[in-house]
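REVIEWER CHECKLIST
Item 1: Sequence provided? yes
Item 2: Single chain? yes
Item 3: Sequence as submitted:
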Amino acid sequence: MLSEPSAPRTPSATTPVRPRRALSAVAAAALALVLAACGSTGSDSASSDDSGKAATRVVATANGKVTVPAHPLRIVSVHSWSTETLLDLGVKPVGMENSGETYVPPRYLKAWKATPKVASGAELDYEKIAELRPDLIVGVDVPYLSKAYKKLSAIAPTAFAPFSETAGWTAYPDATARFVNRTTQMAALKKKYEDRIAAVRKADGAELAASHWDVIQGGFDNGNYWIYSTASPVGTILSQLGAGFASATTSVAKGSTKSVSYERADLLKDADHVIYYTNNDGSPANNIQKLFALQAFKELPAAKKKQVAGTADFLPGSYEDALGVIDSVHKALNGQTG
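Item 4: Structure as written out by the authors:
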C-alpha cells in the first residue's frame, strides 16, 4: 500500500531530481560547523562529553548503523511521516519537507506553516539544509530519498527508516522515535492509541463486526479511482477495530492498490460503509468527487444511507494520524459528519 505512486504526500519515486549548484560559501561554512558539532567518531561506540554523559548514540537505520547525537537539538525532516511523528513527540524540526499544504493533516498545519521548507518530494535544497545547521536529518528510505542519502549524510548524521510496502504504518513512527531518543514518549502514544481502539470497540463493537467497508481514494490515473487493500493503513486500523470488509477491498492484494474507472461504481455495491481521502479542509481529495457525482454511485447502499465517510488522515504516518482515522470511523458509525 505504501508504494510511492499511491501516496499523494509522497511524490512518485520516478520524479526527476534537478541537479543543485555547488554549496555557497555560507552553506559550506555552515556544513563545516555542523560536522564539527556532531562529534561523531565514525565508530559504533558512544563518545562522552565533559559531564561523562554519552554525547552520541548508535541507531539502526535503512543504511546500517549510524552515530547520531544522544539528544539532537536541530533536526531536519525530509519526509512527512517523520515530520508528523516529531511533532507528536513534541520535537520542533528546524526544517521540513513541503508536502503540499492541502495534504497536511489539520493538527500539524500551524507548525508546518511556521517551519522553513527544505524539500519538495525529490527536490531537496541542500544549501538551505546546511544553512540550518542540523545535528540530525531524519526521513524514510523511499526511492527518491535513498538517492539523496549520500549528500544529506555529508551535511549531518542522517537516519532513514527502512521503507517497505508491507511493513505497516507503525514502522515509521517507531523508527523516528528511536532516532531522536524519544522512545518513552512513543510508548505513551502507543498506549493512547491502544486505549482508543479498545474504547471504540467497546462502544461500537457489534456494529463494527456486522459492517463491511471499502477503502478508496481519488486516483492520479486519468478517469480512475483507487481501491485499497485490507492491509493498507486504514484497512489495518479497521481490522484492529473489528470491522469487516466489502468485496472491492478484499480483492486487492496486500501492499497494492487497484486502479479502476470511475464508471465502475458498481464495485462498491456490497459495502455498508465507504471511507475515502479528504483534503485537510474536509473537501474530497484527488478528484474522488467525480465518482460521487455519478448516478451509479448515488444509488449504492452506502451512499443512500449516507454512510460515506471522509478522513484527512487516510495515509497515516503517525499515531495522532491513526487516532484521527479511529475518530472518523467512530463518527461515521454514529451518524456524525464533522
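Item 5: Key structural point noted by reviewer: The longest helix spans residues 183-210.
Item 6: Recommendation: ____
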